[in-house]
Amino acid sequence: MSIISYVITRKQREIFDFICDYIYRRGYRPSYQQIARHFGFRSKATVAKHIAALEKIGLLSRSRKNGTFTLEVVSNPDITLHSLQQIKCCFDNNYSNSQQELFISDWIFDAPMNECFVYSMPDDSMIDEHILAGDLILIEKPHSPPPEGSIVLVNFNDHKLLRKIFFTEKNIKLVPANKNFQSIVTYDEEISLEGYMRALIRPRLKN
Questions:
Q1: Of 5, 18, 71, 134, which one is least surrounded by beta carbons within 10 A?
Q2: What's the CATH number for 86-201?
Q3: What confidence tens digit (pLDDT) does each residue in 157-177 have?
């Protein structure tokens, strides 16, 4: 499991759309200064930060010619951006749709997008697995029993919990990754499996 670094903000999506439209209408690429002027940025460094994010996800490439950067739009039919708000979401009080909108590429999904949803981590109970409060967890709906020791989202006593799951002959053990939280030993009929953890999204980006 790794943190997804190829998440972009709405502002970065707008910059990408602006670059594509600029090239289509004028036949050449905008400069950093033109992008900064259009979006009201005070410096080209702000543009460079957003361009780097677009390059990381594979939407743009940069090359340096004669001391200046040249932008190229990468034509990749396998990359489609989806707003996280378009994915069926299970948000708790730590995250709301009023926060900045994030976009993610669909090639991270192991299952169709309608088979996934996003869960907002409410606490640090899985911190030793590098999952922090406020992280967004991409969950795939279950189609088979989870592997021993996998990280799953369960409903226990009307509370959703992200835990590692272990099995005995009679019981199920839900184990946190933080010594300050207790493990839960319960029976199969007392929990409902919501899905398996597929990816971690850490939205620490600013416009």
A1: 5
A2: 2.10.109.10
A3: 989 999 999 998 889 999 999
